[in-house]
Write a structure and sequence with these properties.
By secondary structure, the chain is mostly helical. The chain has two helices and no strands.
Length: 85
């Protein structure tokens, strides 16, 4: 079978795994802080909700940008480009 990744295919998977594990660590840290009563429960939850909001907006923006890029590809005649491979 032909190798198409040139050794760079693993980088994305490792980066995604690190980001997900880091994000879960942040959520767990905020939850422990909120449940232990340290640093003010209201403040901790407010910060956590703000982070959730920012991450959600970043994801929504990325999805919209990807949709726009795909739209431009289809308009440019690249609709069937994947069939070549």
């Amino acid at each position: 079978m032909r190798k198409n990744t040139n050794g760079h295919g693993l980088l994305g998977a490792v980066l995604a795994a690190v980001l997900v594990v880091s994000w879960i660590g942040v959520v767990i840290a905020f939850l422990f802080t909120a449940l232990s009563g340290g640093a003010g429960v209201e403040t901790t939850l407010f910060i956590m909700m703000g982070i959730y909001l920012l991450v959600g907006l970043a994801i929504a923006g990325g999805v919209c940008y990807s949709l726009y890029q795909r739209w431009q590809e289809v308009k440019g005649g690249e609709e069937d480009e994947a069939k070549k491979y």
